[in-house]
Amino acid sequence: RNGFKRGQHYFVVIFHGPELGSAALVGVCTKEAPIHSQGYVPLLGQSPYAWAWDLSKKILRHDSQERGSYGEDVKMQMKIGMLLDMDEGTLEFDLEGVYLGIAFFGLPRNTCLYPAISAVYGNTEISLIYYGQPILG
To answer: How many CB atoms lie within 10 A of CB 6?
Structure first.
């Protein structure tokens, strides 16, 4: 519902289960990104309007392309931290408080971006918690 055009924004994502499945993704998108698809598709990151970390395959996705390996093994109940920095145009992640580095540079700055999650496993329960501006230092 709420998107962001400026500032830094920190979120925590938790997959409660029952499983991650074959296509569990976390990232950001514009309102133009598709949100429905037929079949088991890693929907987030399949368009030019979304940037995502594919947790199942440990790769980054944008515009239907794999953008390299990234991250560590994610298990149920782990806290996935996501920092969206609209001033710098970056998206960064941490896993259980361990910093994983910048995942994406060059995000559009004058476009509203929204946190997004994609999962194909049936009855998957996911929490998205917004913490606001991070405390750095």
So the answer is: 11
